[in-house]
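User: I've been trying to design a sequence by hand for this structure and keep getting stuck. Would you show me what you'd pick, starting by listing the structure so we're on the same page?

Assistant: Good idea, let's start from the same input. This is the structure you sent:
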């Protein structure tokens, strides 16, 4: 019988909730620490993998190993690649004509400063890969931008891809919308006295109803990036919605209570549908294979 294998590198509230949600629905499930053993490509099974590792690169690497054998991974590595890189996300949004904050990419200190001037201050500098609001820098003027750029120049190659956005007057909050299988599930409004509103940084979460306009925009976002479970961060401005970023491994521990929506339940049910598809594929003789998967701390 196929299993839902939840992969993690640090067990957070979310992975525990996902496991509990699967158990309570009778979905065969295990929790597996990817760090325990080396990985190889070769063994066969029809399990579905829910990749929940914290580090973007670890999650992506594990997904690629699994997909090399034809295994189903939620989310697929192509979605991780897009969502895990803010510049890649912005490029995909731009290609799809989806509104987002004005942004520039730059590949030298001089060009980064020129980008800030072009956008007009204040601007926000962001590492292309990162989360929890880490290493975001708000520059209100050229002097601050010069200091940020100089610091980045000493932070290693990843920081030499400068990603610069216009600062958006967002009224003290942003909105995070959760989507499962391309449909909006629920959304929270994150409010903070600080310009960085992540709940990991103290932002307060409350329910934000998803109206038809927002739902339509979210469906366009999903059409542009794909994914079984994604969280879309947006700003509401006087000119309408702007999509700020898309998360492929979103945390949701603070979102089920205010929205009243069982997010973990919706995610494992989507995975269970994929497990059924896998089984049907097996019956047709289209056997899929997957690598052996480190040690299993199967809790079921
Ligand atoms: N251009 C911007 N204008 C205003 N606020 C921003 C801007 N970019 C980010 N923020 C604030 O910082 C938070 C974190 O930014 P985000 O791009 O989502 O990075 P992370 O991946 O670290 O969460 C956002 O939720 C928002 O509150
Ligand atoms: Mg964010």
């Amino acid at each position: 019988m196929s299993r839902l294998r939840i992969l993690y590198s640090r067990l957070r509230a979310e992975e525990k909730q996902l496991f509990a949600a699967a158990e309570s629905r009778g979905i065969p499930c295990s929790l597996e620490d990817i760090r325990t053993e080396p990985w190889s490509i070769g063994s066969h099974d029809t399990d579905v993998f829910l990749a929940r590792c914290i580090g973007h690169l670890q999650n992506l690497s594990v997904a690629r190993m699994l997909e090399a054998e034809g295994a189903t991974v939620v989310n697929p590595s192509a979605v991780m690649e897009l969502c895990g890189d803010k510049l890649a996300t912005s490029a995909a949004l731009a290609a799809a004509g989806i509104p987002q904050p004005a942004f520039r990419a730059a590949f030298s200190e001089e060009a980064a400063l020129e980008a800030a001037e072009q956008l007009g201050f204040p601007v926000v500098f962001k590492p292309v890969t990162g989360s929890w609001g880490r290493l975001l820098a708000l520059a209100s003027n050229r002097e601050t931008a010069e200091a940020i750029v100089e610091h980045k120049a000493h932070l290693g190659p990843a920081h030499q891809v400068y990603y610069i956005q216009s600062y958006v007057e967002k009224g003290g909050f942003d909105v995070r919308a959760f989507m499962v299988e391309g449909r909006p599930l629920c959304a929270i409004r994150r409010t903070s006295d600080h310009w960085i509103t992540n709940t990991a940084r103290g932002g307060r979460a409350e329910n934000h109803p998803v109206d038809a306009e927002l739902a339509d925009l979210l469906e366009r976002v999903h059409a542009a990036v794909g994914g079984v479970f994604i969280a879309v961060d947006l700003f509401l401005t006087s000119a309408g919605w702007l999509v700020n970023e898309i998360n492929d491994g979103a945390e949701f521990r603070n979102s089920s209570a205010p929205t009243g929506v069982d997010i973990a339940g919706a995610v494992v049910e989507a995975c269970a549908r994929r497990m059924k598809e896998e089984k049907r594929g097996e019956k047709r003789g289209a056997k899929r294979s997957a690598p052996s998967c480190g040690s299993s701390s199967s809790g079921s």
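That's my pick for every position. To get oriented when you compare it with your attempt: The pocket of magnesium ion (ligand 2) is lined by residues 198, 233, 245 (CB under 6 Å). The radius of gyration is 20 Å.
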